[in-house]
Write a structure and sequence with these properties.
The protein is 68% helix and 0% strand. The chain has nine helices and no strands. Helix 4 packs antiparallel against helix 8 (186-207).
Length: 227
Amino acid sequence: MTAAELIRGILSQVILTLVFIALLFGPAGTLAWAPGWAFLILFAVCSQAMGLWLMRTDPALLKRRMASPLGGGQTTRDRRIAIAIFVLVAAWIACMGLDGGRLHLSPTPFWAKLLGAALIIAAFWGWARVLAANHYAAITVGVVPGQTVATGGPYAVVRHPMYAYVFLLLIGGPLLTGSLWALLFIIPAAGLMAARALGEETLLMKDLSGYPEYAAAVRWRLIPWVW
C-alpha cells in the first residue's frame, strides 16, 4: 500500500467517524450519552484493529476492501443495493440516537448492554474469519483474475458469511445503545442482504470456476437451516 493510499484510508476513517457522531448524537440531542460513546468507540476500535491486521497480513485485500462499492464494474442493480444499504445504516444509527439517547422509549438493562457489546465484537471476529478464509472478499461484486472459491472457515457453513455476520451487529448495536426499536431494521436489512447475495451468486455461478459445485455442497446462503 502506497503512502497516498494510506493517507486516503486514514482520511476516510476520520470522515466516517465524524458522520457516525453526527448521525448518532444529533438525534440524541446531547453528547453526554455514555451508551452512544460505548457503541462508537467499540465500533471504531474493532474497525481499526481489523484494518491494521489486514495491512500487516493481506494489504492487497485491504486495498480491495477500501474500494468504493459504487465504483467501476458494478451493475446498476448492485449500485442501487449499495446505496439502499448506506441509507438503511444511516437511518439505523439515527434511530438508536433518537430512541436510546433522547426519547428512551425502549431502554435495555445493563446485562443486555453487555450482550450487545459482545455481539458487536463477535460480528467483527466473524468478519475477520471471513477475510482470513477468502482473500478475494472485496467490497464490490465481481471476479478478479486468479480468484478461487473460498470453502474453508465460515464458508463451510454458509455461502455468504460476510453478510450473515451483519445480523450480529444489527442486534448488538440496539442492545448496547438501549434502542429496541432499532431492531426492526433487521427486516429491511435481511431483504437487502438477500438481494445482494442472490446478485453475487448469479455472477459467481457464471464467472468463477468451481462455484456451482461449491454451491451444491454448501446448501445455506445466510442462515443455516433457514435460507
